[in-house]
Amino acid sequence: MIATRNSIPVYQLYGEDSQQDIDIRAEPEFFHLESIPARSRLHNMYIRPHRHANLFQMLYITRGTADITFDDRHFSLGPQNMLTIPPGTVHGFKFSNDIDGWVISLTDHHVAAILAPAPRLLSQLDTPRSVFFGTNGDDTTPAKGDFLMAQLVAEYDGHQAGRLFALRQIMGLLLLHICRQAQLPTQGRLSRQEQKRAKFRKFQTLIERHYRQHKSLESYARDIGITTTQLNRIAKDIYDMTATDVVQSRLMLEAKRTLIYTDIAVQQIADDLGFRDAGYFSRFFTKKAGTSPARFRTGHRQQPPIATPATSDPAAPATTTRTAPTTTKPPPRQSADRSDTGCLPPE
């Protein structure tokens, strides 16, 4: 947890200190699924208002009710409702004793990657959404939410070939349905928090386009139409990282993916990611990862690339085996100016 005496708790996963060994930003393919009761029962069915630095979450209810607090709003949801929770959103829950359903957690980077073929949909996820996935009284076919969640749970708990691909496609269908059903805000102006999320989303889009070029923060801020100070404040509020750390974490994510899933030499990886030489890249990587690129690659080659994921929102890791509901990223690379280290630390 990252908090001061007067601040709202910021968790990676509810009830888990952000300084623990689990680091969602370090996971090349972070994805987590768990039942709502798995965490909420550890907290007497009450999840205090908190927020997540860089997790996008989805809560799907199959039974019972949830009383929900979103910033300054309070409402209730019942079965076959899907709730989305963008990073930085203050949220809390009071669940009924018979609650059941699922909590999905993944990083904002992976949401953007899943929806990359339809980037205009991303803006629909900048604000919390509640979408009904039911059948409106038609009992002849399973509810769309029940069907998709059953597929997601089966793939998540399974070990078949193409598991990660299947999870991404099912998640894509869930996100697509949410975006299609989302209604535009009735009020003419966005709230201050919504404006921050929109600016941060633009920042992420620019990072995806230019992270290999090591552009300066001043350049990113200018393209967004704000100052570097404002950009840092927004990044800290939404992602609990400095703007420079956000850029560098994207470089690290790509470096880790390449080291794990390819045999490309470190020298070539350094060049592809815009570093002026392999030595500079190795020092940068070692400082961020705590180990050299070669040792990182060797360590991950000694274990299956798809590990059992860590943990989600609504408190401590759950090991209970669950059954599924039965109810019914980057563009073409541009040449980089190697004389400008941009968001990289000095050599």
Brief sketch in words of this structure:
38% of the residues lie in helices and 16% in strands.
Give a written overview of the molecule:
The chain is of the alpha+beta class. The protein has a domain at 1-183: Jelly Rolls. The chain has helices at residues 36-40, 108-114, 144-157, 163-181, 192-210, 217-224, 228-239, 243-261, 266-272, 278-289, 293-301; strands spanning 10-11, 32-35, 46-52, 55-63, 66-70, 73-77, 81-85, 91-95, 100-107, 129-132. The strands form two sheets. It has a five-stranded mixed β-sheet, with no helix packed on it. Helix 5 (192-210) packs across helix 7 (228-239). The protein starts with 9 loop residues before the first strand and ends in a 46-residue tail after the last helix. Mean pLDDT is 77; it is low at 1-8, 18-29, 184-188 and 304-341.
What distinguishing features does this structure have?
347 residues; 10 strands; alpha+beta; 5-stranded antiparallel β-sheet; disordered N terminus; globular; 11 helices; 5-stranded mixed β-sheet; Jelly Rolls
Fold blueprint:
Blueprint: E1 10-11, E2 32-35, H1 36-40, E3 46-52, E4 55-63, E5 66-70, E6 73-77, E7 81-85, E8 91-95, E9 100-107, H2 108-114, E10 129-132, H3 144-157, H4 163-181, H5 192-210, H6 217-224, H7 228-239, H8 243-261, H9 266-272, H10 278-289, H11 293-301
Parallel strand pairs: 1-3
Antiparallel strand pairs: 2-9, 3-8, 4-7, 4-9, 5-6, 5-8, 7-10
Helix pairs in contact: 3-4, 5-6, 5-7, 8-11, 9-10
